[in-house]
From TrEMBL, chain A:
It comes from Idiomarina baltica OS145. PANTHER family: ELECTRON TRANSPORT COMPLEX PROTEIN RNFE, ION-TRANSLOCATING OXIDOREDUCTASE COMPLEX SUBUNIT E. This is Ion-translocating oxidoreductase complex subunit E. Part of a membrane-bound complex that couples electron transfer with translocation of ions across the membrane. Keywords: Cell inner membrane, Cell membrane, Electron transport, Membrane, Oxidoreductase, Translocase, Transmembrane, Transmembrane helix, Transport. It comes from the Bacteria.
UniProtKB/TrEMBL annotation, chain B:
It comes from Idiomarina baltica OS145. Its cofactor is FMN. The chain crosses the membrane at residues 20-38, 44-65, 72-89, 125-143, 217-234, 241-262, 268-286, 298-316. Its main location: membrane. Pfam families: NQR2_RnfD_RnfE. This is Ion-translocating oxidoreductase complex subunit D. Part of a membrane-bound complex that couples electron transfer with translocation of ions across the membrane. It is found in: Cell inner membrane. The complex is composed of six subunits: RnfA, RnfB, RnfC, RnfD, RnfE and RnfG.
């Protein structure tokens, strides 16, 4: 159970693939112009990450050390092909919007990074949870960044969610304000870099604040120990 | 006898940062007066809004960073950024344009990077690029200069247009740009570029109504006004000659050579020197002491790079003018320029070589 907790904490916050490891930045920056796109790619990455982690972990005894990377890439490519065909079949418009970035999930360093660093050394159920948490952490950052950019650049949230979730999702669309002239920069690639920088800065700020609180608590306990001895 | 040991540098300029920056603003005055003569009262309102927003946002940021707001406001750097941005944008641009631009310049480009002296990019130009990319329509709506303008706007009409985006009588900026024959008037740089893209030759392109004797009506005097301000800065030793000379050489030498080779399709050096933001860029924008290169040779290179980039973008790029893009691109190159133009330390052979060994 503690392993589960540690993996959750690592994936979602302390070792978040997007915010801390800064892996997979290419899709992260390229497709986060709206929440729908971000969520679509986030879920696809999550699926691939879990699948590849489980498979890599299951076959790890039979993979020779020398050729492990090509094997991992083949495994990842298999899952990417599966998700690509599924998206082509069920969410065709989103598939077209995301375009090249679905096949490019193969090259997402976050996935091969987890296969190499965790799945190839741990049991399959741990690897599955690791994949789930890392994938959720990555998807969460994608959605937050997508939200920021969509609000600034379009004034809406969940615009086009029906492409991903079906007809009912049309009600999800929130129009916060209507802009005659949207802030195009937020939608364009520089907006992704600037938004990402701000998210990382906020995370670092929170971490620094927490470290500060912890260090003051520690000094108090040490003072007490000194008094007793 | 007392042997007082003083640390280097031994030669001092008595001018403090706030005085240097105040001189920069002072030297802008001739250009701003000429701009307000040719392009209406708008520029004064833009400066007013920009300076207010800059000071407010700078105080809030400095306060949030737990530093002295009075100290930060007194160095006048926010003032220079605000004024430069305000004179770069079209005078009749709606008020929220300058507010967004100034906020971005001060908060994101300057304070987030660590405040005065820490910014990698020129704040005013980064703000300008944000606006140009995000709001291309408003940012290219320059009115024709006063002698050929179809309408003459008063003080109140200008203010009304900036606040409500149309005049009290109901004209919007697009209509104000439209002449009697129904053609909307482009800036000289834009007009010549469009004409050349359409396959016309230079003499035909120069026959458009907004072209004057040297470059564009109004624009040529505006550039001469900023040149005058630049000479004041040079004379007061606020800036050194390296960046403006490099800038103008980088822009004018290629345009001269190209004009010699293809006199009918490539505009000559005089047109480039007195169009768009050339002089403002050469003397006021590229010379920003924080984001420019530091050594003399480095500054010469930095200026050359900006000038060359402007010429390349003006000639083949998608935008009519390019001072802001060129300055930002050159800002990116500053670390590498500084690395390879490090002056020789006294007693050593060569700064860069020695370091590489």
């Amino acid at each position: 159970m503690s392993e589960f907790k540690a993996l959750t904490k690592q994936g979602l916050w302390e070792n978040n693939p997007a915010l801390v490891q800064l892996l997979g930045l290419c899709p992260l920056l390229a497709v986060t112009a709206s929440v729908t796109n971000a969520l679509g790619l986030g879920l696809a990455t999550l699926f691939v990450l879990m699948g590849s982690n489980i498979t890599v972990s299951l076959v790890r005894q039979w993979v020779p050390q020398e050729i492990r990377i090509p094997v991992f890439v083949m495994v990842i490519a298999t899952f990417v092909t599966i998700i690509q065909l599924l998206m082509n079949a069920y969410v065709y418009q989103l598939y077209q919007t995301l375009g090249i970035f679905i096949p490019l999930i193969v090259t997402n360093c976050a996935i091969i990074g987890r296969a190499e660093a965790y799945a190839s050394k741990n049991k399959w159920h741990h690897a599955a949870i690791d994949g789930l948490m890392m994938g959720l952490g990555f998807a969460a950052v994608l959605v937050v960044l997508g939200g920021i950019r969509e609000v600034l650049g379009n004034g809406t949230l969940f615009d086009g969610a029906e492409l991903l979730l079906g007809e009912w999702a049309k009600q999800l669309r929130i129009e916060l304000f209507s802009l005659d002239y949207p802030l195009l920069l937020a939608i364009l690639p520089p907006g992704a870099f600037i938004g990402m920088g701000f998210i990382i800065a906020i995370k670092n700020r929170i971490d620094a604040k927490r470290a500060q609180i912890q260090s003051t608590e520690k000094t108090v306990t040490r003072a007490r120990v000194t008094a007793e001895s | 006898m007392s042997f007082k040991v003083a640390a280097a540098p031994h030669g001092h300029s008595q001018k403090k940062t706030n005085q240097v920056m105040a001189w920069v603003v002072f030297a802008l005055i001739p250009g701003v007066i000429i701009q307000s003569y040719f392009f209406g009262w708008g520029v004064w309102f833009q400066i007013l809004i920009a300076v207010t927003v800059a000071y407010l946002s700078e105080s809030i940021c400095v306060w949030a960073r737990e530093r002295s707001a009075r100290q930060a406001l007194r160095d006048n750097t926010a003032l220079v950024t605000a004024v430069l941005l305000a004179i770069s944008i079209p005078p009749l641009a709606p008020w929220w344009i300058i507010v967004i631009g100034t906020l971005f310049s001060i908060v994101v480009v300057k304070q987030v990077y660590g405040g005065m002296g820490q910014n990698i990019f020129n704040p005013a130009m980064a703000g300008y690029v944000l606006l140009l990319i995000s709001f291309p329509v408003q940012m290219t709506h320059w009115l024709p200069a006063a002698p050929i303008a179809p309408y003459d706007l008063g003080l109140w009409q200008t203010l009304h247009t900036i606040i409500f985006e149309y005049t009290p009588t109901g004209y919007d900026v697009e209509q104000l740009r439209t002449t009697v024959d129904g053609m909307s008037m482009a800036t000289p740089l834009d007009g010549v570029k469009t004409a050349l893209d359409q396959g016309k030759i230079l003499t035909e392109a120069y026959q458009q109504p907004m072209l004057g004797s040297l470059a564009g009506i109004g624009w040529q005097w505006l550039n001469l006004g900023f040149l005058l301000g630049g000479i004041i800065l040079l004379q007061q030793r606020i800036i050194r000659w390296h960046i403006p000379v490099g800038f103008l050489a980088g822009l004018l030498v290629p345009s001269f050579l190209a004009h010699m080779f293809a006199p009918s399709i490539i505009p000559g050096p005089i047109f480039h020197a007195l169009s768009g933001a050339t002089m403002l860029g050469a003397f006021f924008i590229a010379t920003d002491p924080v984001s420019a290169a530091t050594s003399d040779r480095g500054r010469l290179l930095f200026g050359l790079l900006i000038g060359l980039l402007i010429w390349v973008i003006r000639t083949w790029g998608g935008y009519p003018d390019a001072v802001a893009f060129a300055v930002l691109l050159a800002n990116l190159c500053v670390p590498i320029i500084d690395r390879y133009t490090r002056p020789t330390v006294y007693g050593h052979h060569s700064g860069a070589k020695h370091d590489a060994e």
